[in-house]
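FORM 7B: Structural annotation worksheet

SECTION A. Query
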Amino acid sequence: MKILAVDYGDSRTGLATCDRTEFLTTAITPQITLKARNKVAARVCEVAKEIEAEMILIGLPLNMDGTEGERAAKSRKLAKTVELWSDLPVRMWDERQTTCAAADLLDESGTYGSRRKEILDSVSATVILEDYLAWRKEHPGEM
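SECTION B. Predicted structure
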């Protein structure tokens, strides 16, 4: 299944996708730098259509204790808008620690400075997607 993953943030929104076999994940650049939720939702829907996504996965930024705060509420609002506008299934996925994991990956590859800022959220979206795909392998047939 072709999936579009979204790491929604206040300043930047990262995107990533996978191939139909769910084996290869790829960050989509450039990141979305729009700030208004409706504009971000519109761009997410455009990208989903461009890549022929069959599902959209949106990171859910839970607090470390598993509760939901203001960021989670914003992500849920984005998800509702995207689901209405795209006519695709939208799933929320726990994104705790993904930015840290993405930063570690960029450290390992020697990516720093402005280049890091340009891709960090897209790499985070890739981490979200890879985590979800690993879960799907253990739960075949579930979405």
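SECTION C. Observations
The chain has a mean pLDDT of 86. Residues 3-138 form a domain with the Nucleotidyltransferase; domain 5 fold (CATH 3.30.420.140).

SECTION D. Sign-off
Analyst initials: ____
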